[in-house]
Specification:
heterotrimer, A alpha/beta (718), B alpha+beta (154), C alpha/beta (435), A: 718 residues, alpha/beta, 7-stranded mixed β-sheet, 5-stranded mixed β-sheet, 24 helices, 16% strand, globular, B: 4-stranded mixed β-sheet, binds flavin mononucleotide, binds iron/sulfur cluster, binds FE2/S2 (inorganic) cluster
């Protein structure tokens, strides 16, 4: 714990801290360009120079020089100011002065520093570098002339993302950050490089010339594209989102950063639609809601409430789902509520075995990943694994991966028929069974046996056998935590809210069992058999996922679909209600860590669309049942009283698994055993760029998706 | 894109190191020795063979001055132009070569026999001005000596 | 090979390192062994590794790669780090222009180097070694590979050296044209297959070098001294040379002298003796104008400095550095602007590009020099050059950038008149500028 003096202030810092860390602790402001706490120390830009007093005085880069006992540092001495001016002058030698047309202006570290240090006219009077910009990459534009070669993009792409699409190329004054052979970018297009670039060398095409950064307003929200639920910042200009950034220096994948543009897609539903003479035509809210109210009442009177069912959504908020199940239960009077997503849900998810904080990955000596697609299913989970390996030197055991990015950094590449086989063989090998094993088992066992702490990332398609074996393996090893993979948005929250036929909110079991409702599978079968009269679908598109379902839903008396697009399912509906998108409403969601995250409204709902809960509330009122929530927050207050885990849960915190002892077994939460429907419903394995009705309407992601398809075709051909 | 012979030799080189990435430079040398130069087409195969990101292979390959990206002549002449050689007339040697071969620096003669380029100090300053023809050193160069030397290379 | 290796003809009694090279086929292991090669290995093996390190410390041997760090101390740092395996790397990058001393050993006495490495590896308990050889030394590449193969055959390398249970494997790693790879952390990056850019220190190579393991990097000449420290004993060894600089030094003398070549002389030999006694004085009856004493990154000296002793401390006092001991001699026909322009171009070409000051500074300097020698000098060019040097000083990541300033600052300091004439375009007393 060295103690040193910085600008006449005495500070004590942890050993291993740099002078830069110490300066921050002392409240001194030291500018940096190439340094980032997320990355290994690099020390290239030289703007962070400080003076170490003594004889002789020394200038050092504070970001890479360890703080030592009794050092006396000045961060603003005349020599320091001179050195920083020198560095800035050097940087401006080749940096074009095109700030007026640069999207980074206003948010540019270099511009700020030049301003702050009052740089006068440069003595530089030679030719500037002229490099061609890369305009042909998807989503991202690269302008090498603006580049100051701080290397942050290269390092984040390697150290954090493990993608390494970018690299320093050439040498000296000809150095250039580029791709292999200067080709257009081929990567995950997460845009982390754009985010971390301190100048305008890397920029988002989506944002190009959309707005000057200083004219933007910020709204903090959450990305709903997958179970990671990353915090985002919606940047708006004149009430319209123009850009999405990470809320606080966190990672975002391509879907999170660029995929939001779907909310402005021209196919957004703006007004309600009703089927008249067999065709869907625009109508007023009044017409639509009274039609639904009348029809629902008719069916309920004729065939009973049990002939009506509802499917909730993992793409909407906790509040929407809470109101949805409440509407079904108290307005309609049925427990026929469920989530189609449960068909793909790992059995045993939500049981006590998931400790699930992603941070535990970085704390584990060894990470065993049983799903090669981890980085596509839950990109942030992939990043946390890469960080643990690249930055903390942990070991990765990876099952059956192709040439994917984690493959390159894995210590052991397991080749086994399936997760189940891999687990069985690991267990057998640990038990001393010396028979021939799949490739990598022996190495994996030796790593696992040495490890004090282990994380196991379970496969997204999880079977009870895998869960059992994994738990058994964990008992043989040291301290083990399990990380689930959850494809879509708010599965956890929707379950917590009781969008389940057999549980009320907070997993209060419905008793007696006869009073439980039909699950999603049963509802679909009943619809096909003609025993279900009405189905109310909020924010899901079963036909889009699996066209065969068209036949099952065809004979319903009433199909209501509430969505932001006219999905394949909506096209079959009798009434279609336009819902507000995630940027147009407030609320909360719960991610795969059981962490509560909030959404805040950044735009007015498009056209006549409304938040899902509000539509349901209006319908309840039309049906004569008073519902009087004034806001999502008010709904949350009610949730807190009903769901014990949410009682005192604050945004950003995870609810501890002990709060739901009823879930120990996880029984009844998954429908994944239903092999018939599983085959029917889970047709395509929809990965990073091609999943869901929303993402498929993102222009940016569409570009990427087409590119990937072309690549795949090309590689098949060759 | 890599010949089986080169692949085998890269694999052999790789065994000298605890980590495959270390074989990137040996691999680039081996490829250049066989093909005469590097190209975009070999970056991917080398990367794959050694399990290194392709951009890193390209980044390394473009860092080092001795890797060429276009075909040289059958014989590559590298003339030292650093201080000791330049003090003893390296520039006039380069001029002479250019005139004699009828091509500018970095180009290949029409008959494909020679190409010539500048190189940093080749550690033959005691024989300045000096040059390398392929892997052979020649020193104390004069225009006459060069004329005589070139005739020896087919 | 068509150049004769012009090692010094003088047979001073202190000649050690270059003693064998005048013997025909000295690179052949049998010839070398007949003349004493590998004799010190068993002597070293008879003592403990720590004794070898102590012996090295007592000898006063300092690194010949440029920085002059005490070799025994460097070894002890790596030996104290508990991590295994440890690596020994021979720095055979010899990239400092004007330097060709290591070449004699690499091409003509490779077994001396291998012998030194075997002992060094034993001292630090390294089981793996690499010779990082510059790409510009293709002849040495073949010779070293053959020598290593022979050393394996004779049991001096491998898993059980000479039946003593000591293991040491060795191979050659070829560079590919990058001066910066002589800098030891860049060298390690390059060995690992990356771009040769310097690493942040700490951690130092002694603790986290190649593949994160304790690593010693030593120059060829340094390692070639090791067998002599062992065979002579540290006390006798320390008798050679001068205060603070023990042993001999191979000086690479080039430029405007009658007999350019490598001269192995005791540390502390004066410039005058080197240039006039050994290298035969200035060519063509010209007058001496300037001397670069230790390679192009060391400050130039003038005829006033002829009596400076060539050793670490004396050169520092004279405002320069011993560097690699590459003495580049310039006569009065040399335009110092032109000479410095060549050096400036070299540094621009060799800057690795990592840090701002060096990348941009070397480029800016060089652009001004190219303009000057093209006859397009401007009134304020000298001021701008000095100003760029001031900006680069102390702000570069590694010593390459700092080295790039030395020729500029020293040539302006001693030969400002050349610059002024060049800018005024009223002709030099040297050869006319082109352009
Ligand atoms: C730019 C630069 C170039 C260098 N080039 C060489 C070189 O070519 N050969 C060498 O032995 N040392 C070179 N060095 C010094 C090495 O970094 C290192 O100090 C040396 O190899 C240590 O060996 P020694 O202790 O035996 O001298 C260079 C240093 C710098 C900063
Ligand atoms: S950021 Fe520091 S902060 Fe980076 S090199 Fe620059 S030198 Fe340092
Ligand atoms: S300067 Fe030309 S060989 Fe040394």
């Amino acid at each position: 714990m060295p103690t040193l003096t910085i600008d006449n202030k005495i500070v004590t810092v942890p050993s291993g801290a740099t002078i830069l860390d110490a300066a921050i602790a002392a409240g001194s402001r030291v500018p940096t360009l190439c340094h980032d706490d997320k990355l290994h120390p690099y020390g290239a830009c030289r703007i962070c120079m400080v003076e170490v007093m003594g004889t002789p005085r020394r200038m050092v880069a504070s970001c890479t020089t360890p703080a030592a006992n009794n050092m006396v540092i000045e961060t603003m001495s005349p020599a320091v100011i001179e050195a920083r001016k020198a560095v800035l002058e050097f940087l401006l030698i080749n940096h074009p002065l095109d700030c007026p047309v640069c999207d980074k202006a206003g948010d540019c570290r270099l511009q700020d520093l030049v301003h702050e240090y009052g740089l006068g006219a440069s003595k530089f009077d030679e030719e500037k570098r002229q490099l061609p910009p890369d305009l042909s990459s998807a989503v991202i534009e690269r302008n090498a002339n603006r580049c100051i070669l701080c290397g942050k993009c290269v390092r984040i792409c390697k150290e954090q993302n493990a993608v390494t699409a970018l690299a320093f190329t050439r040498r000296g004054g000809k150095s250039r950050i580029s791709t292999s052979c200067d080709r257009p970018l081929e990567c995950e297009f997460c845009g982390e490089c754009v985010e971390i670039c301190p100048v305008g060398a890397l920029s988002s095409k989506q944002f190009k010339h959309k707005a000057r950064t200083w004219s933007l307003e910020e709204t903090l929200s959450t990305c709903l594209y997958c179970g990671n639920g990353c915090p985002i910042k919606l940047l708006t200009r004149k009430g319209r989102v123009v850009r999405v950034s990470p809320a606080r220096n966190n990672y975002l994948c391509a879907r999170g950063r660029f995929g939001w543009d779907a909310v402005h897609h021209e196919e957004r539903l703006l007004v309600p639609k009703m089927r008249k003479d067999g065709v869907l035509v625009d109508c007023t809210w009044g017409e639509a809601l009274s039609h639904i109210a009348v029809e629902l009442k008719k069916i309920k009177e004729k065939r009973g409430a049990a002939a009506i069912g509802g499917l909730g959504s993992i793409r909407t908020t906790n509040e929407d789902n809470y109101v949805f199940q409440k509407f079904m239960r108290s307005v309609i009077g049925t427990n026929n509520v469920d989530l189609l997503a449960r068909l793909k849900m790992p059995r045993g998810l939500n049981t006590a075995i998931f400790s699930a904080e992603l941070a535990s990955l970085g704390e584990s000596d060894v990470i065993l990943v049983l799903d090669p697609d981890v980085a596509e299913i839950n990109p942030l989970t992939g990043i946390e694994i890469a960080r643990a390996i690249n930055q903390k030197g942990r070991d990765l055991i990876l099952l059956n991966s192709g040439p994917g990015k984690l493959n390159r950094i894995a210590s052991v590449k397991l080749k086994a028929g399936s997760a189940e086989i891999a687990l069985s063989e690991l267990i057998a090998a640990i038990g001393g069974d010396a028979r021939a094993k799949s490739e990598g088992i022996a190495e994996a066992v030796s790593l696992l046996m040495k490890a004090r702490t282990i994380s196991i990332v379970l496969p997204a398609e999880l079977s009870p056998v895998v869960v059992d074996r994994a738990q058994y393996l964990a008992r043989l090893l040291g301290q083990t935590t399990f990380i689930p993979l959850i494809r879509r948005g708010n599965l956890q929250g929707a379950l917590d809210m009781g969008v389940l036929p057999n549980y009320y909110p907070g997993y209060r079991e419905i008793n007696p069992p006869e009073t439980q409702g039909m699950n999603a599978v049963e509802m679909l079968r009943a619809a096909a058999a003609g025993t279900l009269g009405a189905l109310y679908i909020m924010g899901d598109d079963p036909i889009g996922n699996s066209p065969e379902i068209f036949l099952m839903l065809k004979s319903l008396d009433l199909l209501v679909v509430q969505d932001i697009f006219l999905t394949a399912t909506a096209k079959l509906a009798d009434v279609v209600l336009p819902a507000a998108s995630f940027v147009e409403k407030s609320g909360t969601v719960t991610n795969l860590e059981r962490r509560l995250r909030s959404l805040a409204q950044a735009e007015e709902p498009l056209g006549e669309s409304k938040p899902d809960w509000m539509i349901l509330q209006n319908l309840a009122r039309t049906m004569g049942v008073p519902m009087t929530y004034a806001s999502a927050a008010e709904i949350m207050n009610e949730i807190r009283t009903v769901v014990p885990a949410y009682n005192t849960l604050t945004v950003g915190a995870c609810w501890p698994r002990e709060l739901s002892p009823a879930l120990e077994t996880g029984a009844g939460l998954s429908l994944s055993d239903d092999t018939f429907l599983k085959r029917e419903l889970i047709t395509a394995d929809r990965l990073l760029f091609s999943s869901g009705s929303m993402i498929s309407r993102s222009r940016e992601i569409g570009t990427l998706s087409r590119m990937k398809t072309a690549e795949r075709k090309a590689s098949h051909r060759s | 894109m890599l010949s089986p012979g080169v692949i085998a030799r890269i694999r052999e080189a790789r065994r000298q190191y605890p980590d495959a990435r270390a074989a990137v430079l040996p691999a680039l040398h081996l490829v250049q020795e066989e093909a005469g130069h590097l190209s975009a087409e070999v970056m991917g195969p080398i990367a794959e063979l050694l399990d290194v990101p392709e951009s890193d292979v390209f980044g390394a390959a473009t860092f080092y001055a001795l890797f060429r990206w276009k075909p040289g002549g059958r014989h590559v002449i590298s003339v030292c132009h650093n201080l000791p050689c330049s003090l003893l007339g390296a520039e006039s040697i380069i001029e002479h070569l250019s005139r004699k071969l009828g091509v500018a620096e970095g180009q290949v003669t029409e008959d494909g026999r020679f190409s010539f380029q500048r190189i940093e100090c080749i550690g033959r300053c005691d024989g300045a001005p000096a040059m390398l023809v392929d892997d052979e050193y020649h020193g104390e160069l004069t225009p006459e000596k060069i004329d005589e030397l070139l005739a020896r290379y087919a | 090979m068509s150049i004769k290796p012009v090692a010094g003809e003088n047979e001073s009694m202190n000649q050690m390192l270059l003693k064998r090279i005048s013997i025909p086929n000295s690179a052949d292991i049998d010839v070398a062994m007949a003349h004493g090669a590998y004799a010190s290995v068993e002597k070293a093996y008879a003592t403990r590794p720590v004794d070898v390190i102590d012996e090295m410390k007592r000898s006063g041997l300092r690194g010949r790669g440029g920085a002059g760090f005490p070799t025994g101390t460097k070894w002890s740092f790596a030996a104290m780090d508990p991590k295994m395996p440890r690596y020994l790397i021979c720095n055979a990058d010899e990239g400092e222009p004007g330097t060709f001393k290591d070449r004699f050993i690499l091409e003509q006495d490779p077994h001396l180097l291998i012998e030194g490495m075997i002992i060094a590896a034993y001292a630090i308990r390294a089981v793996r070694g690499y010779i990082y050889l510059r790409g510009e030394y293709p002849v040495a590449f073949g010779i070293l590979n053959r020598a290593i193969a022979k050393a394996y055959e004779k049991g001096f390398l491998g898993s059980n050296i000479r039946g003593k249970g000591v293991a040491f494997d060795l191979s050659v790693h070829r560079g590919a044209g990058a001066y910066i790879c002589g800098e030891e952390t860049s060298l390690i990056e390059s060995l690992e297959g990356k771009r040769g850019q310097p690493r942040v220190r700490p951690p130092f190579p002694a603790n986290a070098g190649a593949w994160g393991m304790p690593t010693v990097v030593n120059n060829v000449e340094t390692l070639a001294n090791v067998p002599f420290v062992i065979s002579l004993g540290s006390e006798a060894y320390a008798q050679i040379g001068s205060e603070g600089s023990t042993g001999t030094k191979i000086f690479s003398v080039s430029g405007a002298v009658m007999k350019p070549g490598g001269y192995e002389l005791p540390m502390g030999t004066t410039l005058r003796e080197i240039i006039y006694t050994h290298a035969g004085g200035i060519r063509g009856g010209r007058r001496l104008k300037a001397i670069i004493p230790g390679g192009v990154s060391t400050p130039m000296l003038t005829p006033d400095h002829l009596d400076v002793k060539m050793d670490f401390n004396s050169l520092l006092s004279a405002g320069s550095m011993l560097g690699s001991g590459a003495v580049i001699v310039m006569d009065d026909s040399t335009c110092m602007v032109k000479a410095t322009a060549v050096i400036a171009r070299f540094f621009e070409h060799e800057s690795c590009g990592k840090c701002t000051s060096c990348r941009e500074g070397t480029g800016w300097l060089s652009r001004i020099y190219q303009r000057l020698v093209a006859g397009k000098g401007r009134e304020n060019d000298i001021d701008v050059l000095l100003d760029i040097c001031k900006k680069m000083k102390g702000t570069c990541f590694c010593p390459l950038g700092e080295g790039a300033l030395q020729p500029v600052l020293s040539s302006i300091r001693y030969f400002r008149a050349d610059y002024e004439r060049c800018i005024r375009k009223d002709g030099c007393d040297a050869k006319p500028c082109k352009g």
